[in-house]
Task: inverse folding
């Protein structure tokens, strides 16, 4: 027995020596890896700003708060005396029952818990209050307070442009909107922190400071104007509610730059009976555009010298047949004999389809090739993920081309295109034939300094000749002045050019008379285009479904706001001693003008060649010219745009 014990003891001593000499290094390293671990510290995500610097999305700090209840620095007596005060304080700050905190604190103390979770998502203001509580106010070691900083993404304007701003979900691989498209720029670079494993498998930081500080992401400056975005969403929502529509979108773009200054997408959510930004309809959904596509059809024929705007078309009673399929107009136009211009301005399906069919029936591929040359069959190439692909079929694919395809495609059916792609095409007309790429981001910044500035990308430098562009502009102005858009923009102080659209929605392989897309697309001011816009309202169900009555009012409300807040200010001022002097645009009482400009001490900028009771200003960039305005006796004067005081006075004196 003695010998056995001796051998066993020698074996144990030998094993100890072997471990120390041979395995010691590896075992120490293994113990180190089990006790210490490097954790990532999330970098603050960069901000998304609107075009004037307002925050659209930002990272807000939140804090995870834990308590080393069993810290050796906290005596049993101190803990017993202060536990009630801590529980009540946490209850007041975090809005939870004090008894819950008291129980968890006592339980954690008894179990020796050194990493008790108090709250997972605490704001900075709440954290400041927690740091003032008994014991915890002593800090990390003496007070056992452990604070881990994190961030959450916040949108200061809540749902405004929410879908366009977007979000990122790494786990589900979802990259939506600007957040998703520019996630590499916004993300920054994570830092590193070494933490030690304690009892119950929890990890606590070794040092108060980070081992490697994270590098915050860069900021992106979007082209969105949050004020116009607000106007756009409210105007769209008002019409969706009025017409009980399923969904709708509205997009506003700067003509020369392609900057998207507002984009609204609202869809009805039956779960809580509200319209929400749950789907980017303008970018993601290819639809049959209907009558708004007639512009491309007529420009193709003009460019190929197939027609002239003064050519005569026979539309008869407003219906015709192609093979066994009937095509109708909403109503008979004129006496049944109209011009090409009339066909477009009054949106005649019969007139446009006959014009294209007669011009291209022998070689329909020439019509399609012309559409292709105008870049209508190509996606824009948006950086935002999810752009719908335009589908404009070609006669070479016999399995999808029918005898009726040419006439129906000419009026916007049997092809699909997204609302934003339609807007891009109309914007090219406003931009004298230059098709620019819509863009949502203008700059990337770091700490306020511009790191990268994005220039305007050109998709097609010349979609059609300038002569054809000029014809297109006159046609689009005619729609608003005489045609289907006449009543939507009557008495407007600025000229609008655009096209209405009312398209039946295909359902179960056919069309019905209950589901429509109502749209209006165009630009303004027509004589000097600054902005283009499109509005599409899907499936209105309250009785009205024409683009002029459903979609055009949204366009007008947005345009009115832009005109009154931006264009009037820019167009009606002159520079005087490095100051911008406003010019009254409407008729105004002469004595008021003299008094205003005398007080401003800028009388040298005014020219009164003729003095009457009422004047109107014109601007030659260096002087303000006032011309007399005369009113006929016994006739009601035109007081549109005048101040109420002047209008009442004039009405009383003239009538």
Result:
């Amino acid at each position: 027995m003695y010998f056995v014990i001796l051998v066993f003891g020698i074996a144990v001593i030998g094993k100890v020596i072997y471990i120390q000499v041979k395995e010691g290094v590896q075992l120490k390293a293994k113990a180190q890896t089990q006790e210490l671990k490097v954790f990532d510290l999330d970098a603050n995500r960069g901000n998304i700003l609107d075009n004037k610097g307002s925050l659209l999305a930002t990272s807000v700090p939140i804090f995870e708060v834990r308590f080393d209840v069993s810290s050796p620095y906290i005596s049993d007596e101190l803990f017993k005396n202060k536990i009630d005060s801590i529980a009540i304080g946490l209850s007041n700050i975090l809005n939870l029952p004090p008894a819950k905190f008291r129980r968890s604190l006592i339980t954690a103390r008894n179990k020796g818990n050194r990493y008790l979770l108090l709250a997972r998502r605490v704001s900075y203001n709440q954290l400041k209050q927690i740091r003032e509580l008994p014991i915890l106010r002593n800090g990390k070691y003496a007070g056992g307070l452990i604070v881990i900083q994190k961030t959450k993404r916040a949108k200061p304007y809540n749902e405004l442009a929410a879908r366009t701003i977007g979000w990122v979900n790494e786990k589900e691989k979802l990259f939506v909107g600007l957040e998703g498209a520019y996630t590499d720029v916004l993300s920054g670079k994570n830092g590193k922190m070494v933490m030690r494993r304690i009892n119950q498998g929890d990890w606590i930081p070794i040092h108060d400071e980070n081992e490697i500080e994270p590098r915050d992401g860069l900021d992106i400056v979007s082209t969105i104007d949050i004020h116009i975005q607000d106007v756009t969403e409210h105007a769209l929502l008002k019409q969706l509610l009025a017409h009980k529509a399923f969904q709708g979108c509205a997009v506003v773009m700067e003509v020369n730059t392609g900057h998207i200054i507002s984009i609204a997408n609202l869809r009805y959510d039956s779960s809580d009976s509200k319209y929400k930004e749950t789907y980017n309809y303008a970018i993601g959904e290819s639809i049959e555009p209907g009558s708004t596509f007639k512009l491309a059809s007529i420009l193709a024929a003009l460019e190929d010298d197939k027609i002239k705007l003064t050519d005569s078309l026979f539309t008869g009673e407003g219906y015709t047949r192609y093979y066994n399929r009937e095509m109708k107009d909403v109503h008979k136009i004129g006496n049944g004999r109209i011009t090409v211009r009339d066909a477009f301005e009054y949106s005649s399906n019969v007139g446009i389809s006959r014009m294209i069919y007669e011009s291209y029936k022998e070689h329909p591929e020439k019509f399609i090739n012309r559409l292709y040359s105008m870049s209508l069959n190509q996606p824009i190439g948006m950086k935002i993920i999810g752009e719908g692909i335009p589908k404009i079929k070609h006669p070479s694919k016999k399995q999808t081309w029918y005898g009726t395809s040419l006439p129906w495609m000419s009026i916007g059916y049997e092809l699909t295109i997204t609302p934003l792609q339609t807007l891009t095409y109309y914007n090219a007309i406003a931009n004298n034939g230059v098709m620019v790429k819509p863009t949502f981001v203008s700059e990337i910044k770091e700490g306020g300094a511009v790191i990268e500035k994005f220039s305007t990308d050109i998709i097609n430098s010349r979609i059609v000749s300038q002569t054809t562009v000029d014809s297109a502009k006159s046609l689009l102005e005619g729609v608003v002045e005489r045609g289907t858009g006449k009543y939507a923009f009557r008495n407007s102080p600025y000229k609008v050019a655009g096209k209405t659209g009312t398209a039946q929605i295909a359902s179960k392989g056919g069309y019905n008379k209950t589901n429509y897309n109502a749209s209006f697309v165009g630009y303004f001011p027509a004589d000097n285009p600054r902005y283009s816009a499109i509005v599409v309202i899907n499936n209105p169900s309250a009785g009205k479904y024409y683009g002029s009555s459903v979609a055009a009012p949204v366009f007008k409300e947005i345009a009115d706001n832009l005109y009154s807040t931006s264009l009037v200010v820019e167009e009606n001022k002159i520079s005087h001693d490095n100051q911008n002097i406003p010019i009254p645009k409407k008729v105004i009482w002469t004595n008021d003008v003299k008094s205003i400009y005398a007080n401003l001490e800028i009388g040298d900028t005014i020219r009164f060649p003729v003095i009457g009771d009422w004047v109107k200003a014109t601007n030659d960039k260096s002087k303000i010219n006032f011309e007399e305005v005369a009113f006929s006796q016994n006739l009601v004067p035109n007081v549109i745009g005048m101040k109420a005081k002047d209008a009442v006075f004039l009405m009383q004196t003239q009538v």
Observations:
- The two ends are 135 Å apart (CA to CA).
